[in-house]
Amino acid sequence: MTLQMKSTVRRSGPRVLVLRGGEVVDADGRRRADVVVEDGVVTAVGTGVAVPPGATVLDAGGCVVAPGLVDLHAHLRQPGREEAETVETGAWAAALGGYSAVVAMPNTEPAIDSAAVATEVLALGRTAPVEVAVAGAITVGRAGERLAPMAELAALGVRIFTDDGAGVQDGALMRRAMDYARGLGVILAQHCEDARLAGGGSMHEGPWSSRLGLPGVPAAAEEAMVARDLVLARDSRCRLHLLHLSTAGSVALVRQAKLAGVAVTAEATPHHLALTDAACATFDPVFKVNPPLRSEADVTALRGAVGDGTVDVVATDHAPHAPEAKDVPFDEAPPGMLGLETALAVTMEAVGLERALAAMSWQPAAIAGLADRHGGPVAAGAAANLCVVDPQARWTVDPATLASRSRNTPFAGRTLTGRLRHTISRGVAVVIDGEAQR
Q1: In Å, what is the CA distance from 413 to each residue of 154, 245, 396, 410, 416?
Q2: Burial class (CB in 10 A: 0-12, 13-18, 19+), 81
Q3: Residue range 354-364: average pLDDT?
Q4: Annotated catalytic residue: which of 298, 312, 317, 390?
Q5: Three-state SS letters, the chain
Q6: What average pLDDT does this structure show over 288-303?
Q7: Is the pLDDT of residue 11 over 70?
Q8: Handedness of CA 71, 73, 74, 79 (dihedral sign)
Q9: Torsion angle defined by CA atoms of residues 50, 56, 60 and 61, in that order, rounded to the nearest 10 degrees
């Protein structure tokens, strides 16, 4: 048993639950059904099911009951940046967003580039309200110079490797990493950005960057690395996952590669599905992110790609920053936005409920190697990792009420439609009626 599978925290919430009056939506379709959970397992799904003695009944009327969401891309900052986030606070943000599992990115301080650091983060995750898996770094210190001990990390159950926050610039090194990854049966996840082409830009290169006088990052900076790594993946037959794609050109390259049989999956973020570079006109650093917010045409292309399955996953790229870090001029601020608590509503608005659930639950669960306990059909015998969502609920995002230690949400003050009502993690109701059960 790997360390990732030892997430057996038992909180004080009710152990026998009935989700009453909802509509189940999963990979098998939609149906009206009550769901009974006993000791971490779904024991019955159907209409008119018997309520076990002592069960807690949770109202799911008017709601969708779905497998818990799985985030392939969350920055939990611990170790090293606990002023911005911890594993615990990030996991509570995830639970309040409907997630039952998150993959913690390795750009911590120190980076998750060794068994020791990975073990530390996995240990912190064992007491968190949702399952916390980790991604390992491709290179030591994410410096792009020599490969990290991937076999040691894979032995702990690490399935995804990435230098996220920086792309692996050396093509020869990336090729060696792919050969190694294929032998280990793991996935390389690439932050696609040619640093020389990006040139230190702080927003999308286009009419808005020219108007605002801010240095721009051209779409080519992303697309050049996407093209390079698709060719390398084709030749190495390594499984490649492309992080937070943001341009229409990247989408076209992935679509072509999939048709050619390349083993590639891709993700987009909720903010790249909802916001354009025009948001930067306020010079508010909350809208600075990497890759940058792109044009309306790019947003349209990404929505279409999620809709037709070219982009497999919507992942948050949840990137908390302490308030003082963002309280600087736009071009000096670190990139990144919060995402865990707003992701589902934003994505539902962009691509619809069913497509959002597929891209945020069962498809990322399969990529992360978590499908044995997350994202599967809601059926008797399945692990009880579930979310209950009211698709019609309207709410206004208030940064002060978010669970994260940071407040850098780009949706502050925005009214969203669709809100998490309950989250069941490992059979425990960790969120009831939108309130964390700490």
Answers
A1: 42, 26, 6, 9, 9
A2: buried
A3: 98
A4: 317
A5: CCHHHCCCCCCCCCCEEEEEEEEEEECCEEEEEEEEEECCEEEEEECCCCCCCCCEEEECCCCEEEECEEEEEECCCCCCCCCCCCHHHHHHHHHHCCEEEEEECCCCCCCCCCHHHHHHHHHHHCCCCCEEEECECCEHHHCCCCECCHHHHHHCCCCEECCCCCCCCCHHHHHHHHHHHHHHCCEEEECCCCHHHHCCCCEECCHHHHHHCCCEECHHHHHHHHHHHHHHHHHHCCEEEECCCCCHHHHHHHHHHHHCCCCEEEEECHHHHHCCHHHHHHCCHHHCCCCCCCCHHHHHHHHHHHHHCCCCEECCCECCCCHHHHCCCHHHCCCCECCCCCHHHHHHHHHCHHHHHHHHHHHHHHHHCCCCCCCCCCCCCCECCEEEEEEEEEEECCHHHCCCCCCCCCCCCCEEEEEEEEEEECCEEEEECCEECC
A6: 98
A7: no
A8: positive
A9: 70
Structure tokens at 349: 């608005």
- What is the rounded average pLDDT of the residues 364-383? 98
- Residue extents of the structural domains in the chain: 9-65+379-436, 68-368
**Which superfamily does 9-65+379-436 belong to?**
Urease, subunit C, domain 1 (2.30.40.10)
> In the annotation, is 317 catalytic?
yes
Residue 9 pLDDT > 80:
no
Give the separation between CA 151 and CA 274, rounded to whole angstroms: 38
Which CATH number among 3.40.50.620, 3.30.450.40, 3.20.20.140, 3.90.1640.10 corresponds to the domain 68-368?
3.20.20.140
Paired tokens of 70 = 């799985």
Asked if pLDDT for residue 12 goes beyond 70, the answer is: no
Structure tokens at 337: 């936005």
